[in-house]
Design brief:
27% strand, alpha/beta, 192 residues
């Protein structure tokens, strides 16, 4: 059985995207790309909202065909195509590339998926991540803090009646200045 991991890049001031879904402030380099490849390769599935799925599906299926693609980019294209994807959307009619479409987050279904999946499940997307947080479905957090201040946009953690006590299990500073903070829920402290 895997864990449900909220994995997201954010600015130093806590934004996962700036106005108009801008992520140009993020610092993706070869070292970070190789790290993501190694991390995603070991996952059991990606859990994505519609917007993340559409962005990924618009680029990754053929990214390795680009002659200018870096080795890490070409490698991730294959990883993305092969990994199972769970897509939550009320509007998509179909999802390709090894994807299964769900209409709404049902906690019992998510827990059953977690039970039958080998490897961790990565949750990505602002609205879907917030819903998983509200439902208490997140076991771990892998937050990549980029050395940038965005000022406004969409925050990773929305204002909500959620609380969790966490325990730091890993931190890493990449050459680009991006810092990984990896936390697990610490249910022994009485937190939610």
């Amino acid at each position: 059985m895997g864990k449900i991991v909220l994995m997201m890049s954010v600015s130093l001031d806590g934004y996962m995207e700036g106005p108009d879904h801008d992520i140009s402030w993020s610092r993706a380099d070869e070292e970070l790309a190789r790290h993501f490849n190694d991390t995603v390769r070991g996952l059991g599935a990606l859990i994505e909202g519609r917007r993340v799925y559409e962005l990924m599906a618009a680029h990754w299926p053929t990214a390795d065909a680009d002659p200018d693609a870096s080795p890490a980019t070409a490698e991730f294209a294959g990883i993305w195509r092969d990994i199972p994807k769970i897509v939550y959307s009320r509007t998509l009619q179909k999802a390709d590339w090894n994807a299964t479409l769900y209409r709404e987050v049902v906690p019992e279904e998510v827990r059953a998926l977690k039970e039958r999946t080998e490897g961790d499940l990565w949750v990505g997307g602002a609205e879907l991540g917030a819903e998983f947080l509200r439902q208490g479905l997140v076991d771990e957090y892998r937050v990549y803090i980029h050395p940038a201040v965005v000022g406004r946009g969409r925050r990773l953690f929305p204002e909500a009646d959620i609380a969790a006590s966490l325990r730091l299990v890993e931190s890493h500073v990449f050459g680009s200045g991006v810092v990984l903070l990896h936390y697990r829920r610490d249910d022994n402290t009485g937190g939610a």
